[in-house]
Each structure stands twice: as C-alpha cells, then as structure tokens.
Amino acid sequence: MATQLKPRMECSEAEWQARLDLAACYRIFEHFGWSESIYNHISVKVPGEDNAFLINPFGLLYSEVSASNLVKIDIDGNVLSGNYPVNKAGFTQHAYFHRHLDWAHAICHTHTTEAMAVSSTEGGLLPISFYACNFQGQIGYHDFEGVTVREEEGERLLANLGDKRILMLRNHGPVVLGRTIHEMFVQAWALQRACEIQVATLSQGKPIHVPQEVIAVHQRDISQAQAPGGPGYADFEAWKRKIDRIDSSWRD
C-alpha cells in the first residue's frame, strides 16, 4: 500500500509522514508484544522544526495510537498540539536526548521481559550470539536511580551514553536512539533478539563466549548483509505492510 502523504490534520506533509511512521512503529511494537500497558515511549523529532518532537498520548494503548492522536511537544514540555497528556517519565528522558543530540531523530524505551532481565544482570549483554556480537562495545550502561522524572538525571544519562546509540538502564531496560526511525527500529529489534537468546541460553547452562577478534570481524562485515535503503529501511517498511494488512487504523 502506498504511503499516505496528504495530511488529515493541520501540519506539514513532512510532519504527517513522521506521524505515519511513528504511529506505525507503535503498532509494530504492539504486534511484537513490546508494549507495556499505557507506558513506555517512542519519540520522533518533527522534521524542519527545532526542538519539537512527537510522542504517544498518555493513557492510550499502543494499539490505539494513530498518526493524528500523537502529541507534539517541545523539549521544555509544552504541548504544541494534541488532546492528551504526556507521561512525565517519557518527556524527561526523551526530551533531554532530543535537546542535546542533534543526530537522535528517533528514540525508544521498552520494558520487555528479556531486555529488563539482561539489564538486571552484572554482565549486561554477553557476546554469546550472532545478534549480541552486533552490540559489543557499543552499549552504555546507567545505574538505576528510580523512575526517570528528574531533569538533573539527564546529565548522567547523557554522560553514560557517551558516543553510543544504546543506553542500557540497569534494572530497568534499554533506550535505543537512531538517526532515523528505521535505524532505531532495526537496532531495537536486533537488541531484543540478543536479549531473548541470552535469557534462553543461560537457562541451558554455561554459554560459549565469542572471542573479541571474531566480534571485530563480525562488526566489520555486518553491513554487507544490509538490505537496500539504509539501516533498517527495508525491515521497517516490510513490517508496515504487515500491520496494514492486520489493521490500518494507525493511518488515521
């Protein structure tokens, strides 16, 4: 199905496309079972606007999110458009990253069982699977400080992220940042697979750790297995087609 570009609300076509992609992303996460009741967040910067981003309405399930009911807020927490409140925990964390990282176009935070389990172990993500090897040396870790509602914690979140694009909040769950929503999505998908495999492997006994020299070769060559369109583009578009066949109301 062709992507609907004509806005159904008062906004630019670029913003409407961002709304469509973000709404689709929420439905894809719901399809995978990555939602957490009405909590957790995926956000996307509004194209062509400084310091404005889109986030889910607080109180709706991911299966209820659509392009037109996403809330548009600025990095100071002011609602620019939308008829729903925004969860303060989502605003505080996402706004800080959007404010200070000009490349972070899309950000997600999840509470999946497997990712939370991995974040709650001392070793974090171990180099014991194909997917886990993608991320070795590329994840920052941040100690748990309670629910993320205090702006001053943002400084430590940013410092612990460093030059990485994934921040594992210990005892809590991952934050995945991407230059595009497609890149963020495929990284979140691969990270979730790595966590699922780790939980399953550790339940079987002592895991086999991949040597660092093999990890280096794997990370050097992994881009050769990438589909056309840039990181995650083909993956994301394929899943958009899938959810369109299930329920296309995310386009509303």
Description of the structure:
By secondary structure, the chain is of the alpha+beta class. It has a single domain (13-251), classed as L-fuculose-1-phosphate Aldolase (3-Layer(aba) Sandwich), CATH 3.40.225. Helix content is 40%, strand content 13%. It has helices at 13-32, 88-100, 113-119, 130-135, 153-161, 181-202, 212-221, 233-246, and strands at residues 41-45, 52-55, 71-74, 79-81, 106-109, 139-142, 166-169, 173-178. GO terms for molecular function: actin filament binding. Residues 20-199 form the Class II aldolase/adducin N-terminal domain. This is Class II aldolase/adducin family protein. InterPro entries: Aldolase-II_Adducin_sf, Aldolase_II/adducin_N, Aldolase_II/adducin_N_sf.
| Terminal-residue CA separation | 15 Å
What's the gyration radius in Å?
A: 18 Å
What is the mean predicted local confidence, pLDDT? 92
CATH fold category name: L-fuculose-1-phosphate Aldolase
User: What would you give as the CATH superfamily?
Assistant: Class II aldolase/adducin N-terminal domain
Based on the structure given, which CATH architecture is correct? 3-Layer(aba) Sandwich
What does the overall shape look like?
globular
What is the strand arrangement across the widest sheet?
A: 4-3-2-1-5-8-7-6
Find the structural class using helix and strand composition.
alpha+beta
Fraction in helix: 40-55%
InterPro entries: Aldolase-II_Adducin_sf (IPR051017), Aldolase_II/adducin_N (IPR001303), Aldolase_II/adducin_N_sf (IPR036409)
Family: Belongs to the aldolase class II family.
GO cellular component, one term: cytoskeleton
GO molecular function, one term: actin filament binding
